[in-house]
């Protein structure tokens, strides 16, 4: 049975005859009601569910950076996590035993035709901080110096993701992420990409680049 607001012609949440109503991205949407759901739990189904579970958790962890990295794609009848799952479906592997392996060097956090800056090597010499030099701004008329540079660090042990402060631009000498002491001795994966300035009407980002991994100090 559905719950409605604004009368029977208003929003419908739940089962309404042969349909199920729900709200999605501010819109009312309806899908067919599935009366008979089969759940044989075959090996391919179990593996697929495990993959989606991992991708869902990763998408939630990466939500802040992918809101910028996939802003343009998500505007087209999708969500940022939905785009993340689609782009990274083949980057998560599940064995017959159920063991999950993530190809972090293939994970995509952003996609677009904006130019990337030229990033330098990861610097882990300062405790609780990873610093990456910006070697070249790689700027032109369509990629202004006001573009912001994003650095993303992810700690699989704690399933935590942190992002730079979004104040660094193509003119900056480096970009950095500060992380808590709890990350010490854990492996941390790092990505970088470029997004428009705050006052830009464009949502076009650059492709994300996997910059490598290191041990948190």
SSE topology string? EEEEHHHHEEEEEEEEE
Number of helical runs? 4
Sequence of strands across the biggest β-sheet: 1-2-3-4
| Class by SSE composition | alpha+beta
Hey, roughly how much beta strand do the residues contain?
25-35%
Average pLDDT figure: 90
What is the radius of gyration? 21 Å
The span between the termini is: 55 Å
The largest sheet is: 4 strands, antiparallel
Molecular shape? globular
Low-confidence stretches: none
Which helices and strands appear, and what pairs or packs with what?
Elements: E1 3-4, E2 12-16, E3 19-24, E4 27-32, H1 43-61, H2 63-69, H3 71-74, H4 80-88, E5 92-94, E6 100-102, E7 118-119, E8 129-136, E9 148-155, E10 160-163, E11 174-178, E12 187-195, E13 209-215
Antiparallel strand pairs: 1-2, 2-3, 3-4, 5-6, 7-8, 8-11, 9-10, 9-12, 12-13
Care to give the gist of this entry?
It is built from four helices and 13 strands.
Provide a descriptive summary of the structure in words:
There is one protein chain. This protein is of the alpha+beta class and 217 residues long. Helix content is 18%, strand content 31%. The chain has helices at 43-61, 63-69, 71-74, 80-88, and strands at residues 3-4, 12-16, 19-24, 27-32, 92-94, 100-102, 118-119, 129-136, 148-155, 160-163, 174-178, 187-195, 209-215. Strands 1-2-3-4 form a four-stranded antiparallel beta sheet, with no helix packed on it. A hairpin with a 4-residue loop joins β9 and β10 (160-163). α1 (43-61) crosses α4. The chain is globular, with a radius of gyration of 21 Å.
């Amino acid at each position: 049975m559905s719950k409605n607001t604004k009368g029977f012609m208003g929003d419908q949440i739940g089962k309404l005859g042969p349909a199920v109503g729900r709200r999605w991205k501010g819109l009312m949407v309806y899908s067919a009601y599935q009366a008979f759901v089969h759940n044989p739990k075959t090996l391919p189904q179990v593996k697929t569910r495990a993959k989606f579970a991992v991708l869902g958790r990763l998408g939630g962890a990466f939500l802040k950076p992918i809101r910028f990295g996939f802003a343009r794609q998500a505007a087209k009848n999708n969500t940022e996590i939905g785009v993340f799952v689609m782009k990274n479906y083949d980057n998560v592997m599940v064995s017959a035993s159920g063991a999950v392996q993530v190809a972090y060097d293939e994970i995509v956090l952003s996609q677009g035709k904006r130019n990337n800056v030229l990033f330098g090597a990861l610097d882990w010499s300062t405790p609780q901080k990873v610093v990456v030099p910006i070697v070249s701004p790689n700027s032109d008329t369509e990629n202004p110096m006001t573009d912001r540079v994003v650095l993303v660090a992810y700690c699989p042990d704690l399933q935590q993701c942190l992002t730079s402060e979004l104040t660094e631009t193509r003119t900056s000498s480096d970009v950095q992420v500060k992380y808590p002491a709890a990350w010490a001795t854990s492996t941390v994966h790092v990505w970088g990409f470029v997004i428009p300035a705050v006052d830009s009407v464009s949502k076009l980002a650059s492709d994300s680049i996997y910059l490598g991994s290191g041990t948190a100090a």
